[in-house]
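Example with several molecule types.
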Amino acid sequence: MIYLDNAGTTKMFDECVAVHQDFSCNKFYNPSAMSIKSSEISKQILETEKFFLNKLGTSQGNILFTSCATESNNLAIKGSLRSGNYEYVFSCGEHASVYNTARKIELDGKIVHFVPLTKEGVVDLEALEKVLNERTRLISVIHVSNETGAINDLIKISSLKNKLCPKSILHVDGVQGFMKIPFALRDTSIDLYSFSAHKLHGPKGIAGLYVKNKSSLKELFEGGGQQYELRSGTENVSGIMQFKKAIELIDINKNLQHTLELKNRFNKQLNESGIQIVDFNGSPYIECLMFDGVKGETMLHALESKGVIVGLGSACSSKKLGNRVLEQIGFPLNKIISSIRISFNAYMEFEEVEMAAKIICDVYKDIKQRVQK
Ligand code: PLP
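Resulting structure tokens for the full complex:
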């Protein structure tokens, strides 16, 4: 089986299993309890926070550990809401966990602006500039599009914030960017940054939210006040430690180079097949393919029967018809319906992706011939 849906989730590193065993069966203590054993765990969580801050390219701020990036995004947005005449700004290219939260707060009466995307799939900076003002409370943009791989310019977005609404909060959904695309928080004005372990060969059920200034955020649910009174509930200690282990094993630059080569070789195989590659020169980890006259869903099932697993847009939204992000970029519905998402991981072999590309070409040719008969 060749798995090309790594933006949906990734295979966990084997090394995480031993960490899970250790922190669930040996060092299982509650980090908030009073025993020496517990305070050792609490200390390890603090060290892990520093580890993540360092990986994010900053020494300032804190990390809240959450159950998934959907929770991180909800906490970032809902925890930033304030009463009053404030405005909230989102891009049209957001993942459902941000986009649907934005829709919800709009329904609840907040003033919400959605900024369009350019033809290259990134936030339209001119449109963003027009919408930002001194009433802007929150700007929320995706780092790397989970649909297309397009990368937003976080430095330019930061300078717009600094120029037009320096007191606002800048939240970035970094799920497809963290540990894949090199960047450093210290070069930006980002206040909140979400990331998730299961996209990075860590376990499901653990994610993070970087918080530059704790006073900018309010907790979403009451409880014992763990994690700086911002995210109550006993920490998922084993998850946190497994997440750290996964990140320790990732060499971001080496992986980027390898994945770039994977994508080049994959795309080269598709040449002259009539398959349209939607590649915005963004993240090499993600791209879209469009099959003239054949539905993406048909391709997905036919490919699975030949041993290749691909994605159909975001895993969270793929059961709904169409694709909001591709539509925003300006693709017509017939193209959107004919699309699949390809996402690589950095540990694939070149031969594997070349083989997958060949199977995709053969399956497409075969279905097309049958459709035309
Ligand atoms: N944000 C982006 C960009 C994603 O790709 C995803 C998952 O597909 C999420 C958020 C949600 O992540 P999680 O599955 O950890 O809730």
